[in-house]
From TrEMBL:
It comes from the Bacteria. GO terms for molecular function: catalytic activity; iron-sulfur cluster binding; metal ion binding. InterPro entries: BchE-like, rSAM, rSAM_sf. Keywords: Iron, Iron-sulfur, Metal-binding, S-adenosyl-L-methionine. Its cofactor is [4Fe-4S] cluster. This is Uncharacterized protein. It comes from Treponema rectale. PANTHER family: ANAEROBIC MAGNESIUM-PROTOPORPHYRIN IX MONOMETHYL ESTER CYCLASE-RELATED.
Amino acid sequence: MKVIIIQPPLVQLNTAYPSGAYLSSFFKKLGHEVKWYDLSIKLFHKIFSKDGLTKLFNLTQNKALKLAQTARTSGDDNTFSNLMSYLSQSQAWINWIDLIINILTDGTNYSSRELCHRFIFSPDAPRGMRMNNYLENLNHEASVDDARFLATMALADIADYITAVFDKEFALIRYGESITVSETSFSQIEKGLSSPVLTEFYKEVLEDVFNPTSGLHPVVSESTNQKTLVCITVPFAGTFSAALYTGKYLKSAFGDSLFICAGGGFINTELRDCNERSLANYFDALSYDRGYGSYIDLLSSSFLNTAASQKTTECSSIKTSENPENKPDSAASAITNDRKLYKLKLFTLNQTYEHTDVNPDLQKLEDEYTASLTPDFTDIDFSEYPRVCDDINPMQRMWSDGTWIKAYLAHGCYWHRCAFCDTTLDYVKAYKPTKIQPLYESLKTQCQEKNVYGIHFVDEALPPKALTEFALLNMSEGNQLSFWGNVRFEKVYSRDMADFLSYGGLLGVSGGIEIATGTGLNEINKGTDLNSIVSACCAFKEAGILVHAYMIYGYWQQGDLDTINSMETLRQLYAAGLLDSSFWHKFVLTRHSGIYSEWQQGLHPELKPVEIKNAGIFAKNGLHFEGENKSEKFGRGLNIALQHWMHGEGLNKNVGKWFDFKTPQPNIPSDLIEKAIAIYEKKRDENFAQPVNPDKAFWLGGKLLTMNNTLIWNYKGELFEERIPSEQKTISEILWQLNPSSENRKKAVSQLKDVIQKNPQIQKLIKKFRGRGLCVL
């Protein structure tokens, strides 16, 4: 069978989203012919190219002139000058766009380094407002090294023009965008399918890839009795409109030869209870959660058999007023079974055929695939993806300045109890670790093939044991890979463990603090405390690992003082050097969250959800609650302060001064974080003073050199010296062989045991290497 996997736009510029890679691996393991298309990057290149900008300016010149005239008449000189600048420089933008893209894709099309000098300094190169602001605010003289930043600003400038005069819904990244579908009917969403970017540019992408007039197209199965299965991944709200447009185009072009199914994060969270029959114009089914079980069930049914379209068999369904007797219409004629499919809901114009979430055999198979599958990026050309730089902050820059291969160490979250999280859904609650050895081997091979040596783990929270195992495998292979991902800030991340992970390739971590106060952490059932959070951050920073924190404000029980106290704690974390970057999110109550589930059980009487009745709602996960808007006033000040703190500015400023309204004074101790750091340092030093277990000891430092009974070595950029008794000179060779990549490590462990057994006092010397190259897990 042929399987087509499609990622609609727009998700991320710098890499491919991983759902397609896992589905590719899954269907190939079942023996099917698979092709994965990332249409997100194809749309990007369709617009940001010489032909694309030529078309864009031709389509928009008249409108831009009218808007400019209106702006001048109303006295808006800034808008007038910006629009006229775009139009006057239109040919320059067209001439330079391929070079701009080439700079951001590391010169994969032609050498660009020499032309970068001209891009930076030539007065004839195009300039937009963001580019000019960047150059004007440089704290150094502009050089060719600024080319990537300036090229990133160029993309943003063009995107601003598109939004202003062509398509107000356009954005370079729709990663976390909300289209407030919780208050939108499906008919309103359908109107968005006529957006200019979709009709003028994305349609061309679909025609380029799936041209139905080119004879026997790869999308159509050669078997006349079997449909091609098309899987459209919809990870976020911002990709839903493009997914609908994709489904409608394919249905129009290929008709009943395809069976189109949509799945992914947006489908799982927002459309679990969706019975919108109009979806039949776009999709044949919605797949929930991981999808493996539902597709196995689908493949074993007759729904993909074109011969079944001649039959008209009744099946169990939701009764509708239009079809009270459940008689199938012509669109439902392919349905030949009288059973519900596992986590797969089918749609026809007259009926919605419900699914079942219970099938122990399929659940078991799904868990087995989850543990064994490794993502397959065969169909992805990573050289097409731009590595953009929109901030000098090192952690912020790491998100996008690199084409990371995405994978996960475990499905779900090993804690899965945070009150604000969708803890009743599979992607959080169904914790299933993967097999690390085959995952590492597969990723290493693909990194070598693709010439991309960075891994972004997309786990809800990286399991510490699996992370350690992955790092050890990487060490044994010469540390070929670099990786980063989301963790829980817990005390398990000691200095030893952080040193080990750092040596093994861990570049940075992101983690949720959410409410940076002790009582707040308890109220949201975070499962950790402030001292543990500080301890983990201290260990990571001492080990040279970048740290990002997620923050949330506007909780149902949170008052103004709680918000200010959380902000003050965050300020102290920055002032202590424990964080590199952060992001504030506003709390959203969801139907699948732990707090909502507890509220349904009679808990949290202070939470008062507001149900909107008879509003024609399409997606139903997001909920309103009484008092949710009272915290909105904090958003601007929180973000302004954060932007300064992430660049080392304003760290001593009273947190209340970031707002244009009066706020309570924080009542947490001014040395709260300092005291927590002192607790960490005491425990770290106590741990370093413990006897060393040779089985768990690893040498991570440089080669130990002996000079006059003194050992000299480098660790993390610092040169250390330690006097040793002359009879213990062999200790240097033993320690060196404890390196994780050493072929003689087992022998060195045995030798160290012998040395300690013969002379227990040697432990005193060995302890002096702790935190200076010797790590004990």
